[in-house]
């Protein structure tokens, strides 16, 4: 089972007993306000189960890592990546509101970038809903560059929102 460590975080693969955390993350309005509209529990469960199988670089599902604070042993959220095509992956993370703004997103993403480099990926991208200023800052801190804006790409809360695409060249 994949395990990554940072100064403050322990990152490990999602397991069945993480269902309460996963459900809480997806039900928390502050966590999801730039991600999805409210989803039925059955759809959240499908997404959870899709992430449970052992992950390899050939997997079609997300590598979903639970972030645990080393100091408190508290689970803070999830982070990870999914391969979009050979050599290229998308990254993402979700944090419970009480742990946002404390650098955990940046720290976890740096660990994911290190893992992506170690397994030979060439580029990473992140899709951020316009207005999610905090996630744009995380991308900047982790060395991503803004690549393009996709107008009216996503319907969220009854309003069409632009997607902001960020990219990181791992061999640059």
UniProtKB/TrEMBL annotation:
Residues covered by the N-acetyltransferase domain: 9-171
UniProt keywords, alphabetically: Transferase
SUPFAM superfamilies named in the record: Acyl-CoA N-acyltransferases (Nat)
Source taxonomy: Bacteria, Pseudomonadati, Pseudomonadota, Gammaproteobacteria, Pseudomonadales
Gene3D superfamilies referenced in this protein's UniProt entry, alphabetically: 3.40.630.30
Matches recorded under InterPro entries: Acyl_CoA_acyltransferase, GNAT_dom, N-acetyltransferase
Entry protein name: Putative acetyltransferase, GNAT family
Molecular functions (GO terms): acyltransferase activity, transferring groups other than amino-acyl groups
UniProt keyword Transferase present: yes
